[in-house]
Write a structure and sequence with these properties.
Bound molecules: 2-acetamido-2-deoxy-beta-D-glucopyranose
Keywords: Signal
CATH topology: Growth Hormone, Chain: A
Order of helices and strands: HHHHHH
Radius of gyration: 21 Å
Helix content: 55-70%
Shape: globular
Number of helices: 6
InterPro entries: 4_helix_cytokine-like_core
Largest sheet: none
């Protein structure tokens, strides 16, 4: 009698654990959304180098070693997530000035890119909890981009640098870590 009820409790507990794990989505990022985001960011404005921005080329250096060939999937996805999160924070903290005197970027494409970026951050939130924290160079990088955005004369270049580097991140992740995404 005693063993039977214990067995029932154990079975019920195992069952609820199973139900709980079944509702947690698999941790991954949809490759087609990453690809679409990359294409939008590439096409929304003129290619780097923007001539007038060359003096600021050395002011913010993206830590590329986070995406070297030997990087494991979990680390690469985490680095991608961290890059998009840093970029989203910059978009939240500073206004993008489009049009005359500002950036020649297509507003609709920028909006579409940001929607995909938000979607990737939401769906990929689980990757940021699975691996060790990313390269400390990442926060230094976004700090340096912010320094460019804070000065009126370098703000446009700060955005161009950010776009160039996020584009590099998306492109590199897709090429070097293609199989890490869900397709
Ligand atoms: C950030 O700027 C500082 C000061 O200019 C520089 O020494 C450092 O290398 C830069 N770091 C990154 C990651 O851009
Ligand atoms: C990484 O792999 C790509 C494709 O296999 C290759 O073209 C590239 O040279 C490699 N880069 C490094 C730093 O090993
Ligand atoms: C860019 O880097 C140069 C050289 O290191 C420095 O003098 C300048 O203050 C930096 N500009 C900004 C806006 O961070």
């Amino acid at each position: 009698m005693w063993t039977a009820s214990v067995a029932i409790v154990v079975v019920l507990q195992l069952h609820s654990v199973h139900v709980m794990t079944a509702t947690v989505p698999a941790c991954g990022l949809p490759g087609n959304v990453v690809l679409e985001a990359q294409n939008l960011l590439r096409d929304l404005g003129p290619a780097f180098p923007v001539r007038s921005c060359l003096p600021y080329n050395g002011n913010a250096t993206f830590p590329r070693r986070a995406f070297t060939n030997g990087t494991q999937c979990r680390q690469a996805l985490r680095a991608l997530h961290e890059s998009l999160q840093g970029a989203e924070q910059v978009f939240e903290d500073y206004d993008v000035a489009l049009g005359e005197g500002g950036l020649a970027w297509d507003r609709h494409m920028l909006d579409d890119f940001q929607n995909l970026q938000n979607r990737l951050l939401r769906e990929g939130g689980c990757v940021s909890t699975t691996t060790p924290p990313p390269d400390p160079g990442m926060s230094a990088y976004f700090g340096n981009v912010s320094a460019l955005l804070q000065q009126q004369e370098s703000a446009t270049c700060g955005w161009s640098v950010l776009r160039r580097d996020v584009l590099w991140v998306l492109n590199t992740a897709l090429h070097r870590h293609h199989s890490c995404f869900s397709w």
